[in-house]
Each structure stands twice: as structure tokens, then as C-alpha cells.
């Protein structure tokens, strides 16, 4: 079958909730993928940072295969011989006392919201069912009904109401405006240290530390969604470490599964997590032995290969080289570590045609918030591979306007 045949199958039988770049990936290894015709591409998206370790990392594959030969699923109705080991490793790695294992990022966010609410009602004596949580303009935490209820993106909400109440929205990057929203019913602040889906928006220096100060002052929980920014992506194991702004609740996912299996988790200390009692919350697959084995291997590889340090060094190089490109199309280049966004000026259309052209040249990336090209390659990428990408990125960003217009018309 040809690529078009596979695309037609998805179009004919799948829900139309995605608009993929027209490339059909058939196999992958480390930072490279191949389509069904055998053309090679450099993966510069990493499945939205789920592939920090690269595709099919041999140590993680080995851990998966080893566990497959023993037991894969038990449910939490019973203990299994892997989960406790994973929880201990993750808790010590991240610096928390307790771990709640889940599967997807959205599940972990939902779990954190439940924990925060029950903590507020039973530990802070906020009147039952009257608490509010402050989220940020431009946020993206998933697509469940509750999560889209505090989204500021019209499309994410359109047609899916009624919405879950109990949320306030603060401007992104403005700590004073956020503090002004706090009242005697506020129980938590939910923040992405860098907004990835929101367009790789980086807050002002000191913002995270100021949120930590505000949360402590008002005795509310600071919750960081590090599903995309965590596990080495920004050049630190966790983005909060750039400002020593450790949150009360840390939410992880994506790369915790090593690019192989869905693994997510909520982390907190005992005084927060102990509000959960048997029957309060659960998941059939959350904490299954296969996920636990993969999660442990993913952590080991992050530490052994110092992927955070690689992201910091190579990210600085990549961003500096991008900023040397003289392009009329580019409004701004921003990011941290190997999470980088190039914002295209609106007068030149959206970022989509640029991503399409890059795909034609062997680089896979994706637009976000219409105007931003997001680059987030696996953290195992080599400098020479970044240089290979830079040559092609420069060509696309410096082609004449009429060439870009032709690209846009062809899509």
C-alpha cells in the first residue's frame, strides 16, 4: 500500500479530529522515522515531547519485553511486584513522598484537580463544593470536559458545554494579576511552566518563583503541569528547577512512558496525598506492571544519559543558530532547552505551510496556535543532526514570498 492509501483509510474510517501533516510513518529509530515508501525524516516533534528518549530506546524496549514475559496487567484490586518499585524510584527522583500512577496526561490533571479540591475541603476547611482553582490564559491541560471548561481556546470548548464551574483565569506571566484573583475560596493555582501547546510561551524570569511565594503566602496549592516540560525537555529534569519553585503537586506524563507506553503520575507529599482513601479514585490500567517497568527504565535512561544536560547544551546551540537566520517571516524565536517555537508574522499567513514544506525536505514538526512552528526533537539528538536540520530550516525561512504563497495554495 502507498502512503495515500493509508491516509484514505484514516479519512474514511476515523473520526476527523486531527489534521495530520501528510506523512505516513512506518518505522522509527532514535531521532529518525521512515514513511511507507522508505523516505527518511528527522523527527523534530517527538510526539509532543513523549519521545524525549528517542524512538524505541533499546533499554526501554528491553524492560518492556522482559515484563511482557511475566505479567502485564493485574488491576489495583491486587498488589503487583513492580508498582512499588516504580513509585519509590519516581518519588525519590522527583523529590516527593507519594505517587499516584495514572495513564494519560489528561487523567493525571483530572486526578490532581480532585486531590486539590478534597485537600481544600478537608484540610483547609474551605466550604464544601465552593472552592475555585486559578488557571492561566492560553493553557492546555488536555481535552476532558472539566479541563476544557477552563480553556481559553474557543475551539476546545465549542459545542461541549455545559462546563464544569469552579475556575478562574489569570493572564499568563502576570503574577500580580493572578494574586488579585485569590479570594477565601481559592484552593490552588494550576500552571504549565512553559505553555507548549499555547505557542511555546515562556513566562518572564522570576515568574515561577513568584507563584511559589504567592501560593505559600495564601496557603493554597501550587500545581505544575510538567507533562510536556518535565523529564529533561527544558534543560533541567523539571522546568520548576530553573527558579527553585518546587510545586506542592507535580503532574507528569508523556516522556514518563519512554515513548513506548502511556504512563502518567501525580506527585505530592503526604499532607496532600493522604486525603485520598480507598475508593476515592482509581484506574484499571493505572500502575499496571508493564507501565511500571517502562516508567522505571525511562527514569534510568534520563539519569544515565544525562538527557537534561544534553537538552540544555544543544537547546542553547539550536536556538542561537535559529536566531542568526535572517528571515522576513519570523516575528520571534523563543523557548527553553529543546522546546523551541518560531512565531510567523500574521501577514505571511499561518505556520502550516512552513511545516508542510519542512516535511517535504525531511523534517517533521507541527504548527501550534496557527502562527508557531514548534521544534521539540528527541533529547538524544546529535549536534550534527541539528546542523542538518538548520540548513533546511534556513532555506524554508528565507525562500521568497511568492514561493511560500505557492506552498500555501497547494495545501
Automatic annotation (TrEMBL):
<dbReference type="InterPro" id="IPR015424">
    <property type="entry name" value="PyrdxlP-dep_Trfase"/>
</dbReference>
<dbReference type="InterPro" id="IPR050103">
    <property type="entry name" value="Class-III_PLP-dep_AT"/>
</dbReference>
<keyword id="KW-0808">Transferase</keyword>
<dbReference type="GO" id="GO:0055129">
    <property type="term" value="P:L-proline biosynthetic process"/>
</dbReference>
<dbReference type="InterPro" id="IPR015422">
    <property type="entry name" value="PyrdxlP-dep_Trfase_small"/>
</dbReference>
<dbReference type="GO" id="GO:0004587">
    <property type="term" value="F:ornithine aminotransferase activity"/>
</dbReference>
<comment type="similarity">
    <text>Belongs to the class-III pyridoxal-phosphate-dependent aminotransferase family.</text>
</comment>
<dbReference type="Pfam" id="PF00202">
    <property type="entry name" value="Aminotran_3"/>
</dbReference>
<dbReference type="InterPro" id="IPR010164">
    <property type="entry name" value="Orn_aminotrans"/>
</dbReference>
<protein>
    <recommendedName>
        <fullName>ornithine aminotransferase</fullName>
        <ecNumber>2.6.1.13</ecNumber>
    </recommendedName>
</protein>
<dbReference type="GO" id="GO:0042802">
    <property type="term" value="F:identical protein binding"/>
</dbReference>
<dbReference type="InterPro" id="IPR005814">
    <property type="entry name" value="Aminotrans_3"/>
</dbReference>
<comment type="pathway">
    <text>Amino-acid biosynthesis; L-proline biosynthesis; L-glutamate 5-semialdehyde from L-ornithine: step 1/1.</text>
</comment>
<keyword id="KW-0663">Pyridoxal phosphate</keyword>
<dbReference type="InterPro" id="IPR049704">
    <property type="entry name" value="Aminotrans_3_PPA_site"/>
</dbReference>
<dbReference type="InterPro" id="IPR015421">
    <property type="entry name" value="PyrdxlP-dep_Trfase_major"/>
</dbReference>
<dbReference type="GO" id="GO:0030170">
    <property type="term" value="F:pyridoxal phosphate binding"/>
</dbReference>
<keyword id="KW-0032">Aminotransferase</keyword>
